[in-house]
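Subject: design request, 315 residues
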């Protein structure tokens, strides 16, 4: 049985050979995932988790040690689930199995900030981070999708960006960009083929977390500390459904394959906005030209009554 040493002190019976063996197995594990077609974000997440277990002095060849560790930690069920998944895959590469602890992650509703809070973060961040956040706000891209964008994917003249490498089996998409974002992108240095350079996930996250903490303290708003990169995606989807009341449009915008995944934002919108307070402008007509004009300016068909077609539009 292999025993692993921690950074602080050597565990009983551990040897330098043991540690080198484990490090070699972790490198093999990364290569296994890469060959298996796992996404870059999954590879980074699983790698980080296994290295944390390793540097906590745990024996990765002894599943019972890992189970005891998980039993003693007060982890969220969702995080515990990811640890179990990453360790299970590692054991598979070693031709080992285990009886994993029961873990039933429950889906929690995401935090939805105000637009002002998002804009406060963007305006007070550095040029590169601010541009990255503005892109997330307008497109609802996942952080991994945005970080892999190349300059060839962007057309500053037409004000569009194409996402051809979606994550989580999502659909390719094209987005229109605001004048503000186009200007911000045009000011970025073009030192590599990637919009936001080739820095590591750890470096990108570290810069953002430090900026977020500083801005939250400066503005006296601790809610800003709850805004992660994925929060921008949740915010955009919720606002888009509020504006359109069209779940299929939100589904396509997010690149979801299934509408079930999109239904979350209907629940969030109903909780955040008082639907009974919605006010509408109503029009009724039977004239084909008037009907066309109403549809062109955003009116929605409601019903027919007494020979008239009724339309509504949110004020």
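Subject: RE: design request

Done. Sequence follows.
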């Amino acid at each position: 049985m292999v025993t692993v040493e921690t950074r602080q002190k050597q565990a009983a019976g551990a040897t330098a050979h043991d540690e080198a063996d484990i490090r070699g197995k972790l490198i093999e594990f990364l290569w296994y995932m890469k060959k298996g077609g796992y996404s870059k974000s999954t590879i980074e997440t699983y790698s980080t988790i296994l290295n944390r277990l390793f540097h906590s002095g745990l024996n990765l060849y002894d599943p019972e040690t890992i189970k005891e560790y998980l039993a003693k930690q007060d982890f969220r069920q969702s995080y515990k689930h990811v640890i179990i998944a990453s360790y299970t895959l590692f054991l598979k590469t070693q031709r080992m199995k285990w009886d994993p602890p029961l873990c039933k992650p429950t889906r929690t509703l995401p935090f939805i900030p105000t637009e002002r809070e998002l804009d406060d973060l963007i305006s007070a961040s550095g040029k590169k981070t601010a541009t990255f956040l503005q892109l997330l706000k307008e497109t609802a891209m996942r952080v991994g999708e945005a970080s892999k964008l190349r300059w060839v994917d962007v057309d500053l003249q037409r004000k569009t960006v194409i996402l051809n490498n979606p994550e989580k089996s999502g659909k390719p998409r094209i987005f229109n960009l605001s004048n503000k974002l186009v200007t911000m992108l045009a000011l970025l240095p073009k030192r590599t083929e990637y919009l936001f350079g080739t820095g590591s996930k750890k470096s990108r996250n570290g810069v953002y977390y430090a900026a977020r903490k500083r801005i939250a303290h400066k503005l006296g708003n601790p809610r800003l500390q709850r805004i992660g990169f994925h929060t921008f995606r949740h915010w955009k989807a919720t606002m888009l459904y509020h504006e359109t009341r069209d779940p299929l449009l939100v589904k396509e915008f997010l690149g979801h394959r299934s509408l079930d995944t999109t239904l979350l934002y209907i629940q969030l919108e109903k909780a955040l906005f008082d639907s009974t307070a919605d006010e509408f402008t109503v029009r009724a007509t039977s004239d084909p030209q008037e009907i066309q004009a109403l549809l062109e300016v955003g009116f929605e068909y409601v019903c027919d009554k007494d020979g008239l077609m009724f339309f509504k539009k949110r004020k």
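Residues 115-272 form a domain with the hpI Integrase; Chain A fold (CATH 1.10.443.10).
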